[in-house]
Amino acid sequence: MNMLTVSKAKTHFSGIARKVVRSKKPVIVRVPNGFVQIAPYELPEEVPPARRGSLRLSPTELKLHNSFGESL
């Protein structure tokens, strides 16, 4: 894991960010009060909502859904 100073991270931020995204390896930046991590993040794919009426619950599931969980 690379470790950088704040001044280097500020001046080369766009290049560092591109490198982090490409390599998928985080970078640690030393700041006066501790450390900051720049890490890659991938957004999950959006899952479309189920069509109305396409999901069916069993009688037991319906009873649990309507009981606020008292039977647990």
Short description:
This protein has 3 helices and 3 strands. With 72 residues, the protein is of the alpha+beta class. A 3-stranded mixed beta sheet has the order 1-2-3.
N-to-C CA distance: 47 Å
Q: Any idea what the shape is?
A: elongated
Q: In CATH terms, what is the fold-level topology of one domain?
A: YefM-like fold
Radius of gyration: 24 Å
Proportion of residues in extended strands: 15-25%
Find the structural class using helix and strand composition. alpha+beta
In the sheet with the most strands, the strands line up as: 1-2-3
Supply the CATH class of one domain.
Alpha Beta
Please bin the fraction of helical residues.
25-40%
Q: Judging by the overall fold, what is the CATH architecture of one domain?
A: 3-Layer(aba) Sandwich
Largest sheet: 3 strands, mixed
Which whole number gives the mean pLDDT?
A: 85
Count of alpha/pi helices: 3
**Would you identify the regions where 5 or more consecutive residues have pLDDT less than 50?**
none
Q: Would you report the number of β strands?
A: 3
- Give me the strand/helix succession: EHHEEH
How are the elements arranged and paired?
Elements: E1 2-5, H1 6-11, H2 13-23, E2 27-31, E3 34-38, H3 59-65
Task: Outline the structure in words.
With 72 residues, the chain is α+β, with helices and mostly antiparallel strands. It has a domain at 2-38: YefM-like fold. It is 33% helix and 19% strand. The chain has helices spanning 6-11, 13-23, 59-65, and strands spanning 2-5, 27-31, 34-38. It has a three-stranded mixed beta sheet. A hairpin with a 2-residue loop joins strand 2 and strand 3. The longest helix is centred in the N-terminal third of the chain and has 11 residues, at 13-23. The two termini are 47 Å apart. The mean pLDDT is 85.
